[in-house]
């Protein structure tokens, strides 16, 4: 991973390219992420940057975390994430990672948490077909047989059944950066990305080169 940044999903809109074609884009607000620490092989067994994102009031931070921020000399942050970049030496504690690290035309992978749908049946969760709608069928939206009988007297794992839907970590790969606006800390990414509005996103250069 050569570069990465954290941001918040603002929503979707559309812009026009130089040929007049409509391009659907996701607007992501990427305030500067600040390096608040570094993991080292000698001490931690691996290398990474500890990065903080989005300012937060001091009263909302616990004492151990506040000590980490004071040691780094940065304002308290709401989110903390580790970046494992190829060139760690280019970053020192207090260094800001801004949206201008990316350029228009680059390909990125975007990770977010999908929208939670609550407890759902198999029709919505797994796109099962509905049963007969005739009077008395009692099988309109039922899941159907689970397969097992007296042998082996149990339901096999990973059966598609009703349950909690959404609210899981998802990554959309190989998306194009359409435009970068450093003065507004905004990046426009072609297409949709996981999560609701104001959801936290992790953007990094794509692995599909």
Walk me through the structure.
- The protein has three helices and twelve strands, in the order βββαβαββββαββββ.
- Helix content is 9%, strand content 39%.
- The radius of gyration is 23 Å and the shape is extended.
- With 209 residues, it is mostly beta strands.
- The strands form three sheets. A six-stranded antiparallel beta barrel has the order 1-2-11-10-7-12. It has a four-stranded antiparallel β-sheet with strand order 5-4-3-6.
- Strand 10 and strand 11 (186-190) form a beta hairpin.
- The mean pLDDT is 92.
Keywords:
mainly beta, 9% helix, six-stranded antiparallel barrel
- Work out the strand percent: 35-45%
Content-based structural category = mainly beta
Query: What is the general shape?
Result: extended
Please state the average pLDDT score: 92
Fraction of residues in H or I helices: under 10%
- What's the arrangement of strands in the largest beta sheet? 1-2-11-10-7-12
Count the DSSP helices.
Answer: 3
Tell me the number of strands.
12
Give the SSE order as H and E letters: EEEHEHEEEEHEEEE
Uncertain stretches: none
**Major sheet description:** 6 strands, antiparallel, barrel
CA radius of gyration is: 23 Å
First CA to last CA: what distance?
12 Å
